[in-house]
Amino acid sequence: xxxxxxxxxxxxxxxxxxxxxxxxxxxxxxxxxxxxxxxxxxxxxxxxxxxxxxxxxxxxxxxxxxxxxxxxxxxxxxxxxxxxxxxxxxxxxxxxxxxxxxxxxxxxxxxxxxxxxxxxxxxxxxxxxxxxxxxxxxxxxxxxxxxxxxxxxxxxxxxxxxxxxxxxxxxxxxxxxxxxxxxxxxxxxxxxxxxxxxxxxx
Length: 202
What we know:
Blueprint: H1 2-16, H2 18-29, E1 35-39, E2 56-59, E3 64-68, H3 77-92, H4 95-105, H5 110-131, H6 139-142, E4 153-154, H7 168-179, H8 194-199
Parallel strand pairs: 1-3, 2-4
Antiparallel strand pairs: 2-3
């Protein structure tokens, strides 16, 4: 009985702070994950300017996910953080390096390749939300239009980070796949899940 009560208290704490739940799930699942840092504003940090997402950004140089104070408790905050952790998983475990080589060698297909990267990021985000014990979420209920089309991750200076658009429907599709809890399924096109699965701690 005590174990059940303790589990219920733990699950309740996760749902009370979904951002902390996602961060904990990411650190439990993968090595070298960044810390979430609450800031008053993102512009001015890690070389960010007004063109960088003003809600959340992942600075690979400092290994920090910067989230604006007013966003932390918003309904979409857990997804925003999970998405940035999706980038961190790719950066820390070889996928970003593979993608960059492909993009440099195939500039004529850059938009398509970045689109595959974005789909995998949202699939990882869904996987982390599931690992955190958060309820399944349809991105279309959180957003009226596609999130993360502007600069929201990269090294210092962040203002030079990449941008990509794939559409809300594509993001929602891959996020839903991730929420099923099978990281191996996060394999859009030529971006296989092999490196992700190999990096997964358990």
